[in-house]
Amino acid sequence: MNDVSHSLLVPFGDEAASISRLFYVMASVGFLIWAVVIGLSVYAIFSGREHPLRRTRTLVIGGGAVLPTVVLTVLLIYALSLMPQLHRAAPDDSLRVRVNGVRWWWRIEYLNEGGEVEFETANELYMPVGRAVAFELESEDVIHSFWIPSVGGKMDMIPGRRNILVLAANRAGVLAGKCTEFCGDAHAQMNFRVVSTDGNNFEAWRRRQSQPATEPSNPQQLAGREAFFRQGCAACHSIRGTEAAGPVGPDLTHFGSRLTIGAAVLDNTPDNLKRWIVDTHDLKPGVEMPEFDSLAGTEELDALVAYLESLK
Ligand code: CUA
After folding, report:
1. pLDDT-based confidence at 2, cuts 50/70/90?
2. Does 108 sit in the ligand 1 pocket, CB within 6 Å?
3. Which of 51-55, 244-248, 254-258 has the lowest mean pLDDT?
4. Is any ligand 1 atom within 6 A of the Cβ of residue 177?
5. Lowest-pLDDT range, 1-5, 31-35, 138-142, 168-172?
6. Which atom of ligand 1 lies nearest, measured to the CA of 144?
7. Could you tell me if 102 and 122 are in contact, meaning their C-beta atoms sit under 8 angstroms apart?
8. Nearest CA to ligand 1 atom 1
9. Beta strands in 25-79 (DSSP E)
10. Which H helix or E strand runs over 4?
11. Dihedral, CA atoms, 285, 287, 290, 292, nearest 10 degrees?
C-alpha cells in the first residue's frame, strides 16, 4: 500500500490544491504572528527598562486589537473566496457515481446518463482524469463522511438524504479514501481506494465492470464456486452472472480486479484473502461478516480463494 496518496498536501485535483494552499497561507501567517509575539515577549523580559506608557498603550491596542481584527478579516475573506469552487454545481457532462456508506464499507454504483445503475462495485472507484464526477452520497445506516484527501472534499453521508459532492482528479494515481465521521467499531477501517486514470483506461474498466463475472476456467476455481454457495456466501454477496444475489455485503462480481480486501484493510493477495476469510473478526473487529475459521488450511479454502481471485 506504499504508493497510495493519503495527503491533501499532495493534491491530485483543483479542489485539494486550493485547500492545501489555504493550509499553507494559514500556517505561514500563524507562524509569523507566533514569531513576532515570542520575539516581543523575549524583548520585554530582557530589555530591563521601563517603557513610556503611551508607546505601551499603542502596542497593546494596535497589536492586541487592531492587528488581529485586520489579519483575521483578511484570512476570512480569503477562505470564503474559495467556497464557490469547493461547492460548485455539477457540469452537464459529469460522471454520476452513487456512493452509499454502510457499516463499515462502501457500496458504489455507477449510473448511466439516464440515472439508472449501470453496475455496482464496492470499496474502489475509478475517476477519469480531467472529468468532473458528481458523487451522490447516501447512507444505509448511520452518518458517515466521504473524503478523498488528495482530490478534495469532504462531505457527510446522512441516512434519508442525498448530498452531492463534485470533484475532479487532474492527474493519474492511486489515492486513499476515508470515512471521517465516527460511525462505530470499525470506523477507522472504513476506507476505500480511488484510481484516477486517463479516459481510455477508465472506459475499459467501466466496460469490464459492467460485464457479468467470468466463468471458472479450471477445476479448482469450479470447486471454489461450489464452496462459495455451500458455505452460504451467496446469502450476503452478489456475483452477477451466477445465482449469488445477496444484497447485504459488497458485490464481488469483479473482486479479483480490486486492490484491497475488507474496505482497504488488506492488500488483495491470495494469502491475505485466506486470512480475511478465517480470521475476519481479528482483522476488523465489529465487521458483520461471519468468520469461517473451520476452513483454515483446507483445500476448500484454497479453491474458494482461487475462484474469488479469478473474478477479474
Ligand atoms: Cu463510516 Cu466512520
Report:
1. low
2. no
3. 51-55
4. no
5. 1-5
6. 1
7. no
8. 144
9. none
10. none
11. -50
